[in-house]
Amino acid sequence: MIRSLTGTSLIEYPGKISSIIFISGCNLQCPFCHNPELVRPDMLDEEFRLTHEEIIEELLVRDGFIEAVTITGGEPLLYSGIVDLIQRIKSETCLSIKVDTNGTKPRRLKEVLHYLDYVAMDLKSSPSKYLKATGEKAVFSDIRESIGIVMSLPTYEFRTTMVPGIVDRDDVIELLQEIGRMKRYVLQSFHSHKTLSAEFTDMSTYPKGYLEDTASIIRDMNLAEEVAIRL
């Protein structure tokens, strides 16, 4: 279901002011996830449900101020109404549309690709650590098809949250060498104040310098056209 809509964001859609649609539910159990209420249905307040009509109304109210909408989760491609929602946003507004995904639903991604202007796909860790990173719910071989789909777009990003014990610098290099050179790659800092697994709550994170050094190595190895850090 559609959990909520946040009016404006300057960081969710690169270069554009966007609204954010949060869709609950996820098919992965990443222990470090910082949105547990969007992953576990038992944590959801049933009062928070939005219809497609309400979403369109809210977006139209912001016409002239926002330039885009980001649809995130959870895993938004699990939502049974995602195709209709995206089609309506594209036909009833002038907004660019970005979708965040974990890459486990390539068929659904293909269904909506024609309407999308930007896709941000999470890459959890190196192929050998993918099971551990996703709570034993996904393996890297299942992600390959979605990677190819995303890379067919003119604008996209892949991103990895740098979590000690889940992904380190060597994992990132192995991962990017496996995929091949990409347009944009983002290293994200891990925020541990609220996590799906208590084991990762308030855990020490990598220092900023570790991410900066990793980004420099990626650039030197020419593994991405653009490398960014999101703290």
Can you give keywords for this protein?
globular, 231 residues, alpha/beta, 8 helices, 29% helix, TIM Barrel
Describe this structure in words.
- The chain is an alpha/beta fold.
- The chain has a single domain, classed as Aldolase class I (TIM Barrel, Alpha-Beta Barrel), CATH 3.20.20.70.
- The protein has eight helices and eight strands; from the N terminus they run ββααβαβαβααβαβαβ.
- The chain has helices spanning 36-39, 52-61, 82-92, 106-112, 130-133, 144-150, 169-179, 208-220, and strands spanning 2-13, 16-23, 68-72, 96-101, 118-122, 156-162, 182-189, 224-230.
- An eight-stranded mixed sheet has the order 1-2-3-4-5-6-7-8, with helices on one face.
- A hairpin with a 2-residue loop joins β1 (2-13) and β2 (16-23).
- α7 runs parallel beside α8.
- The longest helix is centred in the C-terminal third of the chain and has 13 residues, at 208-220.
- The model has no long low-confidence stretch (mean pLDDT 93).
CATH topology: TIM Barrel
Instruction: Please report the first level of CATH classification, the CATH class.
Output: Alpha Beta
User: Largest sheet at a glance?
Assistant: 8 strands, mixed
The pLDDT mean sits at 93
Q: Rough shape?
A: globular
Low-confidence region ranges: none
Please give the number of β-strands: 8
| Helix/strand/pairing category | alpha/beta
Please indicate the count of domains: 1
Count helical runs: 8
Strand content: 25-35%
- Series of H and E elements: EEHHEHEHEHHEHEHE
Numbering strands along the chain, what is their spatial order in the largest sheet?
A: 1-2-3-4-5-6-7-8
Return the CATH architecture.
Alpha-Beta Barrel
Distance between the termini: 29 Å
The residue fraction in helices comes out at 25-40%
